[in-house]
Amino acid sequence: MSQDPWLQNYDATCRLVQEIAENIHERNRQQRTGGNPAKINMTLRASLQKLKQNINQLRESLLRASSSRRIMQSEADRRQNLVDDLVTRDKQLNATFKGDVTHPELSRSTLMPGAGGEGGASANPWLVNEPEETRGLGFSAIKQQQQRIVEVQDAGLDALAAVISRQKLMGQDIGNELDGQNEIIDDLTHLVDKTDDRIRNETRRVKLVETKSASCGMLVVIVLLLIAIVVVAVWPT
């Protein structure tokens, strides 16, 4: 089974770090012995630029893998620690190259994986932050572990999708019910408007009748008065 491309790029970057540290050591040796380090300085500048590009690529690739959940969170944290270590070593290498480090030999021993340390220990310093979950596991086992986690996450997402689907159906049913109730309310509003118009019409008719009735009553009174006046006028005294 082929190795993870991210880990392959990381290993290549580690080798580049070691190569740069060795070249800085050689450059410093030439300076001490009166040699001409111009050529090796050009190589170092190109290598340092390449190192920065590699670190950026590792960081971007890790971000994509973590966002898409192709790796589990513990592995993403482990790899982030490795990238942070590379960033620190990049700064140290640049400082050493520019002559900002007081003891370049000591800096070289800390920059080269497997170099220096008590008894010349060759333990890989890049894996000191490896989490307990993956420590001692091979790539295949780590991949299987990640696959199981992804399957669990997929099952959880499927369950969440089912819940959302049911909620969507409930929302549609509620919407349909509201539409029906709105139609009923519209019908009631129309009926109320018609009833109100009828009431206003009947009210106007009643007022008209009352007005006519009042007018008729006054006319009767006037006629009676006229008749009384005529009777009094013609009645013999």
UniProtKB/TrEMBL annotation:
Region (Disordered), start-end ranges: 104-128
PROSITE patterns: T_SNARE
Coiled-coil residues: 41-68
Stretches assigned to the T-SNARE coiled-coil homology domain: 147-209
Any one Gene Ontology cellular component term annotated for this protein: late endosome
Function description: Vesicle trafficking protein that functions in the early secretory pathway, possibly by mediating retrograde transport from cis-Golgi membranes to the ER.
Protein name: Syntaxin-8
